[in-house]
Structure formats: C-alpha cells, structure tokens
Design brief:
Radius of gyration: 23 Å
Strand content: under 5%
Order of helices and strands: HHHHHHHHHHHHHHH
Shape: globular
Structural class: mainly alpha
Distance between the termini: 16 Å
Mean pLDDT: 80
Largest sheet: none
Length: 386
C-alpha cells in the first residue's frame, strides 16, 4: 500500500515539476539596464489560462504557512516513543539542561535553542531517557514540546520557498508549484516531526538563499542592502552552527559574491558587466558575509562551554579541560583559554566526521530515490503502523 501511494505521489510530483519548468520557460524577461547599480525591473506575462492578481502574495504566504503548520505541527505526541536520531539529540538536549559536558560531531546552536525552549516554556528537567529507539516517553515528558522547534522549522521552509521564488522573479505559477512541492515533501514532513536538527538546518539554508537574493535585488550600499546582507550573514552563521554539511551553501554564496565583486553584478540574472573591483565593497562584504557568521559560530561554542560545566561521559578534549570540569578529579593543570578549547573541540569534531566510514544502516541508495522508497517506508513504519 505504501509503495502504491508513494508511486502516485511521485508521479504527480514529477508532472508538477514539468509544469513548473514549462511555466518558467514560458515567461519572457524584459530587462533594460540603466546603470551599473540600478535595479533591473522585470515584467512577466502570466499563463494564458488564468491570471493570479498581483496583490495575492500575502494571501499565498499565509496559506502556505497555515497548511505547513497543520501538516507538520499537529499530533506531535504520536508516536509516543523515541524515534530514529532522537536517541542522540534528545540526550544532547538533556546534557545542556543538566549542564553536563558531552561531545558531538555537530555544532550546538539548535540544541541550545531546544534546551532553552524546554526549560523556559515547559519546566522540563532533562530526566527523559533517549537510550534506544522505541523507548517509551514518561507520562510527565513534554513530547509535543520536544518536537515543536523542528516541526516549526519544517513548516516555515514552505513560505520561505515561495518568497524566494518571488524574489527570483519567477512567475506566481512557478512560485506556487515550488512551494507546493515543498509543502507535500514527505521526507521533510517526517523529519520535522522528530527531535532532530535536520529541518532546522534546511530552514536556515532556505533563509540564507532568501536573504541573499533579497540583498542582490537592492541598490548597492543602500540601507536595505546592508540590512539584507547582514541578515544573510546571520543566517549563514545559524546554518553552519547547526551542521557542517551546510558549508557547501557558504561556497555557493561565496562564488556568487566573488562574481559580483569582479563584474559588479548586483541583480540576480543580470547580464554580465565589465570587469571591475572595488576595495570598499570587498571589505564590507567580507565582514557581513564572513565576519558575522564566524562571530556567531564562536558565540555558540562559548555558550556550549558555559552551559556544560560538569563532568560527563564523553571526553574528546584535553586533560586540562576535562579535569577542570565540576565533579572531575583535579589534575592541577589550569583551564585552557576559550580559543584553545574551541580549536581542540573543532579539531576533534573534524576528525570524528572524517572517520565516519561505515555506511549508515538507514542510508538510502541511488536506485531508491526516484520512488523515494526509504522515505515512504520510514513514514509508514513510524507514523501509521505503531
């Protein structure tokens, strides 16, 4: 039954994707560059069979937000047991709440947010065990709150997708299809209903692209350009402070920024201009798009060290650091500086990621992707059979 349902969904999804590209190809761009820093206005002709009113963007953003929240944030207490990687992230959140040192190969940003949310809005004390998949939740455990932040992030991806498409000057039909495909993506829905950081990562990736496109559509060095570029830097900081897998997005933004610096290309899809390099522009972008993410990343690790001050089960740090934790046997060695601890922890995280050579027992293979077999099986096993 799951296979049949998945086949139908993917069939119509592929049809929608084809229609999406047809809509894009059917649009005619009218670009009339006036000057090097002037924003180019683009006009699009709507598909002939129906025209969406120009003032409908607010309605569609509200529509996609409401429907996404409904599909991702309802009935979060089902199933009432530990799922998949909740065994890892649930334990990490507990350690933040109990102020116990732990080691993870991923940065701490989203785990800090979830821990803060649970403590301040539910009074959760970190006593729920996340030892194995299938562990039952305690009657007093705020299961819905455990999964609320990931589900909210999964929901907000959908309107951000629509807004990004509109900022890219894609037709409303194309934008609607883009957001609809994200709305109905089974894997995002499933991931968003678990206590993991994956949907939060996807949300920050989405906001990074959205803010960068908004910045590119503003007049260079105007107040709005500074605002959106700063927000892009902040979003990148949140992104890389969630998982290092998002560094590829930093590379994409970096390549586009270098091209803008060399060719003064400040509007998306704008024709190439003559080669030009501006020193002021370089240092401004260097701070906003690199300095802000680095500062945010450093701040998250500072908070990690400040909140996890008691001896834990895992080390992966220097003897001087571990023996200065509360409850540890003193060694007489002074506590290393923050930058020293930051370097050692990130080095250990890099080695940990590098040494992951064994295939994951839940990984998917290329021949399962067209029908999304792994994703559909996960959904039906977790949400319907239990």
């Amino acid at each position: 039954m799951a296979f049949i349902f998945g086949t139908i969904v993917l069939f119509f999804g592929n049809i929608g994707l084809c229609l999406y590209f047809i809509c894009l190809l059917g649009e005619k761009d009218i670009a009339s560059p006036q000057s090097e820093t002037t924003i180019v206005s683009k006009k699009y002709s709507s598909p002939p069979f129906f025209e969406i009113p120009a003032n409908m963007d607010t309605f569609w953003v509200a529509f996609f937000t409401i429907t996404a929240v409904y599909t991702r944030c309802t009935d979060l207490s089902h199933p009432h047991h530990v799922l998949f990687d909740e065994t890892h992230f649930g334990g990490f959140v507990n350690n933040h709440i109990k102020e116990i040192w732990y080691y993870d190969i991923h940065p701490p940003w989203v785990k800090l947010v979830i821990a803060w949310f649970l403590v301040n809005f539910t009074g959760y004390d970190g006593n729920q065990l996340f030892s194995e998949i299938g562990d039952k939740f305690l009657p007093t455990s705020p299961v819905k709150a455990f999964r609320f932040i990931p589900s909210l992030a999964a929901a907000l991806i959908v309107p951000v997708t629509y807004l990004t498409a509109r900022q890219l000057k894609i037709s409303r039909w194309g934008s609607l299809l883009s957001a609809t495909m994200m709305l109905l993506d089974n894997l995002v829905i499933a991931e968003g209903r678990m206590l993991t950081t994956d949907t939060s990562l996807l949300f920050f990736i989405s906001t990074t692209f959205y803010t960068y496109v908004c910045s590119s559509n503003k007049r260079l060095h105007s107040f709005q350009w500074y605002l959106w570029t700063s927000l892009c830097g902040l979003s990148m900081g949140m992104m890389i402070s969630t998982k290092w897998t998002s560094l590829s997005v930093v590379g994409i933004i970096g390549i586009s920024t270098v091209h803008d610096l060399l060719y003064r290309r400040h509007v998306v899809l704008f024709p190439f201009n003559k080669f030009h390099f501006n020193v002021k522009d370089f240092f401004v972008r260097l701070f906003l798009l690199l300095g802000i993410p680095v500062l945010f990343y450093l701040l998250m690790f500072k908070l990690w060290f400040l909140t996890c001050t008691h001896k834990g089960e895992f080390g992966h740090m220097t003897k001087a650091f571990l023996t200065n934790l509360k409850g540890a046997t003193p060694s007489g060695l002074p506590m290393p500086s923050f930058l020293s601890n930051f370097y050692n922890l990130n080095k250990s995280m890099f080695v940990g990621n590098k040494n992951i050579l064994t295939p994951h027992h839940w990984q998917s293979y290329w021949y399962t992707w067209p029908l999304d077999l792994r994703g559909l099986l996960s959904i039906f096993i977790y949400f319907y059979l239990f």
